[in-house]
Structure formats: C-alpha cells, structure tokens
C-alpha cells in the first residue's frame, strides 16, 4: 500500500480539499484524517461511523488516601505545581499534572500511582467504496502526535488490501506533522502564491529533509499571483522538488465538493482538468 500524506505549512491552503480529491479519484484508498486538533475531512464525506474508541494518551497521578500519611513531601518535588493543599489535605490538580512520575518515586508510602486518562477518540467510518479513520483530541489535551500515530495504526489495520492510504496531515511543523509523515512514502505540500504561504512551505520542506519521502508540491489558486507562482516553481527546481500541478481559484469546485462529493467525478468545473492532471502525474510517479 502506497501512503501519501498531504501537508501544508499552515491551515487554509486547500490541504483537505486536495486530500479529498485524491481519495475520491484514487480507487481502492483508505483515508486518514490526521489533523486531530481540527478534523474536517468528514465534513466533505459525511460518512457512516462504524465505531468510536477512547484513546488513552496521557497519565496523571492519583493519591491513595488509605496509604497517604499527609507528609506533603510530594508537593516539594512536583515541578508543575500540580500538587496542592486543600483543607490541609494533599490533592492533585489533574489539569496541571504532566505525569512525570516524580511524586510516585518520592512518596515514602507508595501512595501515588499514575493512571491513564482519555485524551481523545479514534473513529472509523465506511463510505462510498472507501474507508476512513479520523480522531478528535479532547479540548486542552496534549499528545496530538500520539493520537495521529494511533489514527495511522487503525488505518493500517482497516486497510485490508487497499492500494493507497491518503493522509490529511496536520498543518505546520509540530510533532503531529512529524507523526503524520512518519512511515509514509510520499509527501504532497499544498501552498498558495503568497509570501506567508511560501515562508511556511520552506520551513516545512526543511523538516521533510529528515525523511526519505518523495516530496511534491501543488500550487493552489495559482492564478491569484502568477509572479509568486513562478517564484515557487523556481524554488522547487532549485531544491529538486517536483511540482505536481497548479490549481486555479475555483469557488464552484469547493461548492460541488461540499454539496455532494461524489459529483466531482461527473460534473464539470473549471479546475477539474487540473485535478485530473495532478492525479495522473501522481499515479505515474509513485
Ligand atoms: S508523599 Fe505520599 S504520603 Fe506524603 S503526602 Fe504525598 S502522597 Fe501522601
Ligand atoms: S506526576 Fe509529576 S506533574 Fe504529576 S503530580 Fe506527580 S510530580 Fe506533579
């Protein structure tokens, strides 16, 4: 199975739209929405959920008051100020606890243990001759990289003979992006011809130097600034990154995709040829 991750240096460049098109046009594919902080691939597919499972992505300390002598030693060792006193009793502030285990080690009564906590949900959907794994990180929870890895693990399990895995990666260059790219074959970076998008793209490309992936670029809304589009193409040439294609600004395409995604296969719209060229280019290369 070929694993293709779609990335962007920041949100709002058309990454999810492109990932949606790839998964619609590439037959026998499973989709993985790894933008776990703001998942939105299912806004396009509106698919039937088959199951949802809790994801335990963190551990926090818990005191066994039957054993605790209230010596307060643990409070001195917590560097995150997660151990407090309430009514002369030691308590853990779950929101501040980082699960570092210092209190567990230092407690003379072995009264503290670390317990796993739910930090998100992993969801599996099945739709339109294709499969889809998504997730949602709890508000304020950390560990998005771990949840991304879990989404890909479930997608691997559910793929069962699919030819492609299309991963809608997290935007930016953080740990969830690293987790999105890990163990994939090809990275497609979607960017727009703007100064900020180009700067973000360069930072992302720097990050991708740490992987063995084939890197490709798609320039979205290229016709909004052809000078910047040429700048991107020149930069890609200098850095041996292949430009898979460029897509014109096309409001109708977004409307069709969001109204009835299946109809992008049958309806005509201005950017359709550009998308089909990109898919064909990709098929020939990977
Ligand atoms: S170090 Fe252990 S025994 Fe002492 S207050 Fe903390 S939990 Fe209780
Ligand atoms: S596990 Fe670490 S952060 Fe959490 S309460 Fe204990 S010492 Fe503090």
State the end-to-end distance: 11 Å
Q: Which CATH architecture of the largest domain would you pick?
A: 3-Layer(aba) Sandwich
Mean of residue pLDDT values = 91
How is the quaternary structure best described? single chain
Helix fraction? 25-40%
CATH class of the largest domain: Alpha Beta
Main-sheet strand order equals: 3-6-7-2-8-1-9-10-11
Q: Which class best fits the helix and strand makeup?
A: alpha/beta
Number of domains: 2
Element pattern in H and E = EHEHEHEEHEEHEHEHEHEHH
How much strand?
25-35%
By CATH, the topology of the largest domain is Rossmann fold
Shape: elongated
| Major sheet characteristics | 9 strands, mixed
The CATH homology group name of the largest domain: P-loop containing nucleotide triphosphate hydrolases
What's the alpha carbon Rg, rounded to whole Å?
A: 23 Å
Regions with little confidence, pLDDT below 50 for 5+ residues: none
Query: How many H/I helical runs?
Result: 10
How would you explain this protein's 3D organization?
There is one protein chain. Helix content is 35%, strand content 29%. The protein is α/β, with parallel strands linked by helices. β9, α7 and β10 form a beta-alpha-beta unit. α5 runs parallel beside α6 (175-181). The mean pLDDT is 91. It binds iron/sulfur cluster (SF4) (2 copies). One iron/sulfur cluster binds at residues 63, 68-74, 90, 107, 109, 111-112.
